[in-house]
């Protein structure tokens, strides 16, 4: 999986930071979390491809998270997208997409399916599932986990040959983890295939106070992308506006046993992120700060 931060600012853009959006490239297509204004340009620079299999998951209906949707729909239409596009979000997203496509004078040439969703399993494909939990932000706001399906273990052709298993359909059956019969012999997949490889898990939780539901959702994530809008000395402000300090975000990463933390949705009051990163690292060393167009390859 490749994760690209398209926008790492919060509430208003700055010279260095676009509004929130995160793109994740998976075997099962592209998944975009939030689509702040200006996302289409970042999308273009990151060369994400306007005609890929794609789903957009919106955390909540605040302007900084959704105003990029009309622009990206327009660009996709202009670039000749033909594939379906799915858009999910809390109640309101359906009306917003409907209003956009009915009042803005462009005609999307591809099917758009917008769905109002709640906590639970939102998407299930052959490659991954997406689950949601309610965050704590004063308005309905969803945090999402993208969970890759486990992958079959590595197949060892040499071992299969040693066991005199003829190449062909039997090899395929073994690769799928099933036992095969060769003459009178029963051969279990484990003899020639390594154990399944665990799928990766990424959790996206922005615009939220520290929240048990989010901690539960994030449990065991390979990467937790969390709201880190303020330094600890602005804890009161974070509480008032329904956001988290970087120390609170780092504490969620620790409590949820996540492997890595990426802080994002930074307040425009911070020109650089050195202090934000230092505070978080003191609690959770495996922390990075999101920068626009920075990509991470998850092994
Ligand atoms: Zn926001
Ligand atoms: Zn918000």
Give me some keywords for this one.
299 residues, 16 strands, alpha/beta, binds zinc ion, seven-stranded mixed beta sheet
Task: Average the pLDDT over all residues and give the rounded result.
Answer: 96
Radius of gyration: 22 Å
Number of DSSP strand runs:
16
User: How many helices does DSSP assign?
Assistant: 10
Query: Biggest sheet, in brief?
Result: 7 strands, mixed
Structural class: alpha/beta
Unreliable stretches = none
Q: Which distinct ligands sit in these coordinates?
A: zinc ion
Distance between the termini: 7 Å
Helix content: 25-40%
Query: Shape, please?
Result: globular
Strand order of the main beta sheet, please?
6-5-4-3-2-1-16
Approximately how much beta-strand content do the residues carry? 25-35%
Element order: H for helix, E for strand: EEEHEHHEHEEEEHHEEEHEHHEHEE
Could you characterize the architecture of this molecule?
The protein starts with a strand and ends with a strand. The mean pLDDT is 96. The chain is of the alpha/beta class. It contains 10 helices and 16 strands. The protein has a 7-stranded mixed beta sheet. A 7-stranded mixed beta sheet has the order 7-8-9-12-13-14-15. The chain has a two-stranded antiparallel sheet with strand order 10-11. Helix 9 (246-255) packs parallel to helix 10 (274-283). Helix content is 26%, strand content 25%. The chain binds zinc ion (ZN) (2 copies). The site of one zinc ion has 8 residues, from helix 2.
